[in-house]
Amino acid sequence: MVIHSETAVIKVQQLVNRFGSHVVHEQLNLSVYHGEILGVVGGSGTGKSVLLRSIVGLRQPNEGTVELFGHNLPALSDAKRSQLQKRMGVLFQKGALYSSLTLKENVALALIEQAGLSRQDATALAMVKLALVGLPAASGDKYPAELSGGMIKRAALARALALEPDILFLDEPTAGLDPIAAAAFDRLLLTLRDALDLTVFLVTHDLDTLYACCDRVAVLSQKRVLVADRLAVVAATDDEWVRDYFHGPRGRAAQQAADTLAQE
Ligand SMILES: Nc1ncnc2c1ncn2[C@@H]1O[C@H](COP(=O)(O)OP(=O)(O)OP(=O)(O)O)[C@@H](O)[C@H]1O
């Protein structure tokens, strides 16, 4: 896999995040390039979700800058910031959908609230978005509780794509899915990235997803990005967590599966 462009669409510099005396990030730097799928990994509590929230503007960092398409997000006026934020779609790990709304209502809501569409237009467009992520038309009238985990993730993805973002943020999208549904989600992600020219910031613990989808991988460790590079370079990094993660039994299995797929 190749990095698609050298244009940084996200540039995080000298980022500091702390909660009271608990320092989560300390002078953290990270760039995300146009068209790539960047996997963000790290031990539990290393600050992957806090980083995601800082980039999308849901958390004001204590220090540092977060540039999006060349604009420093925290320094912008509310109007400008919200304009830029529309270029980002987010799929959160939990609470992705409103349980009291059907799938099509869930997707339409984003279009009504954020794009000002009429209910009728938003509903029609929501059906297009559901089809885009491979959901049958009949699923539009179903409630989240009536669907499998894989279908719910797809619907949440449809909602994240509702406003046609340039950058997609995914927080552990395959967590809780069985391996077949997870692999199907990985393939969908690759297809959508290519078809929609997306840049993807993907927080994950799923080694199979890293091998199947990611152009680069960033490892969060010791409050910083320890390394951000192609998978082979990251896996060869001299670090205890990296060794345990990539060269433990699950890491070896994921690599073998990826090698087998590449040979087919
Ligand atoms: N709102 C908050 N108030 C206090 N501490 C917080 C808050 N949000 C996050 N933290 C702390 O920040 C640290 C990083 O949290 P974060 O959720 O980003 O970790 P993570 O790397 O995504 O973990 P995991 O892989 O388990 O999801 C944790 O120690 C967490 O307890």
TrEMBL record:
Presence of the UniProt keyword Zinc in the record: no
InterPro entries referenced in this protein's UniProt entry, alphabetically: AAA+_ATPase (IPR003593), ABC_transporter-like_ATP-bd (IPR003439), ABC_transporter-like_CS (IPR017871), P-loop_NTPase (IPR027417)
Limits of the ABC transporter domain: 10-247
UniProt keyword terms in alphabetical order: ATP-binding, Nucleotide-binding, Transport
Pfam families (UniProt xref): ABC_tran
Name this polypeptide is given: ABC transporter ATP-binding protein
Transmembrane feature ranges: none
Top-level taxon in the UniProt lineage: Bacteria
Keyword ATP-binding tagged: yes
Entry-linked SMART domains: AAA
GO molecular function, one term: ATP binding
